[in-house]
Amino acid sequence: xxxxxxxxxxxxxxxxxxxxxxxxxxxxxxxxxxxxxxxxxxxxxxxxxxxxxxxxxxxxxxxxxxxxxxxxxxxxxxxxxxxxxxxxxxxxxxxxxxxxxxxxxxxxxxxxxxxxxxxxxxxxxxxxxxxxxxxxxx
Length: 138
Description:
It is built from four helices and seven strands, in the order βααββββββαα. The chain is an alpha+beta fold.
């Protein structure tokens, strides 16, 4: 199953990689409650589904986080658009199941939404000049 959020944010691959680290995940996602310990790109966290090890890796366009000891194989990426003309950041979360119970699906949707809120608080929003101009004259 897959879950997405596309955000109109101004960020570079380097900014995502510099700011989104295992020790900072609680600043960006309310579904991750505490980082109990960390070393480099590995951490133990307390989160909405319990206590897990989380791994981080830099990938083209941003970062990938995985929960390697999670039964559902939860993984998520936070990346910029591959099109340089589009200023977007995407949160893409997957699990290794085709179907899942409703409560868990809702918690995954909330998890992606929490990431979206946190990213919007830390990265500047893209301002559409045309939209801004229209708003002034309305």
